UniProtKB/TrEMBL annotation:
Residues 244-257 have a biased composition (Basic residues). This is Uncharacterized protein. It comes from the Eukaryota. It comes from Blepharisma stoltei. Residues 244-274 are annotated as: Disordered. The lineage of its organism: Eukaryota, Sar, Alveolata, Ciliophora, Postciliodesmatophora.
């Protein structure tokens, strides 16, 4: 697929997602208007589901798959991310306009807002499933949407939710809002905890890779030993450091960031939505170098154990 065709496909999908989210926004405004006419807290949100027409949904699903097939994850994820965050931001604006209304009305509208957001997440999840195929299992359309709703809406109405138990005409709707806040807060904590764990593993893998590159004499853009273990640092200092640095300086070839096994499939990959044969060739060469293990003779440290212990403690504090 040519670059122009890919851009055209992106624009079509972006326009379609914006149109769908606008439909859900109008649905919420309709629900809000009905609440303004009927303040009875005993009335739960209407449970009808606003669905995307099947043929249209299938058409959009195919467009998502086409973009994913081109490995343009950064592009497709950004389209979805921008659309869902604009959607929940618009809902927040509508809810914020009710500040002068009664406590019970605002709580009821908050419940209506979540019903609409949850409804949209289920439908858009059918369209955008291809975006998350290579992501960790906890990253889904539904979770991304709920997290956006929690961050951009619920967090701004904490005082309102805390006051909910004091409502005289308490009903299942009021209790649902209280439980919803607890549920999404828990979800937010779990997702962020999982993300940190994943980032930690990625960081450890990156450290091991940088250490291997330095010891094997390969180029390192940082040109330092910040990712090496204490023993490797000592070996590096006692070894022929000058020759290693000279070898790196002689590598006049321009380097660029490349996708690795750890980053493949991530929307953050910098070159995923580009088609550069030279870049692909360099990635393959880089991968082959990583698979080739160079045996480095073990050098005996010339430093005292006390000095090494002091160095280890300093590095531990920095990390």
């Amino acid at each position: 697929m040519s670059t122009n065709s890919l851009i055209e496909l992106r624009d079509e999908l972006q326009e379609a997602l914006t149109k769908i989210y606008n439909e859900y926004l109008q649905d919420f405004r309709k629900r809000k208007a009905q609440r303004l006419e009927n303040l009875r807290a005993s009335d739960p949100p209407e449970q009808y589901q606003l669905v995307v027409e099947t043929n249209y949904r299938n058409e959009l699903t195919q467009k998502v798959k086409q973009i994913v097939h081109q490995e343009s994850y950064n592009m497709i994820y950004r389209i979805f991310y921008d659309a869902v965050h604009q959607f929940v931001s618009d809902i927040f604006t509508d809810l914020a306009s009710l500040d002068s209304q009664s406590l019970i009305l605002r709580i009821l509208c908050l419940a209506e807002a979540f019903h609409t957001v949850e409804n949209s997440a289920r439908e858009l999840g059918k369209i955008t499933t291809g975006i998350f195929e290579k992501e960790p299992t906890y990253i889904t359309c539904e979770n991304v949407t709920k997290l956006a709703f929690f961050d951009k809406v619920l967090k701004h109405f904490e005082n309102l939710i805390e006051a909910a138990p004091s409502v005289a005409d308490k009903s299942c709707v009021v209790n649902d809002v209280i439980n919803l806040n607890l549920e999404l807060r828990s979800l937010s904590n779990r997702l962020r905890s999982s993300t940190k764990s994943t980032d930690k593993v990625f960081k450890e893998d990156s450290q091991r890779m940088n250490s291997k590159l330095i010891l094997s004499g390969e180029d390192n853009t940082n040109d330092d030993v910040s990712f090496m273990s204490v023993d490797d640092i000592v070996s590096f200092i006692n070894g022929d450091a000058k020759d290693m640095k000279k070898k790196r300086r002689n590598k006049g070839k321009k380097r660029c960031k490349a996708s690795t096994a750890s980053t493949s499939g991530s929307p953050k990959s910098e070159y995923r939505d580009m088609e550069y044969p030279e870049l692909e060739k360099e990635i393959e060469e880089f991968s082959r170098r990583l698979e080739f293990t160079v045996k480095i003779p073990r050098l005996k440290p010339k430093f005292s154990e006390e000095w090494i212990k002091c160095l280890r403690d300093q590095i531990t504090k920095i990390n």
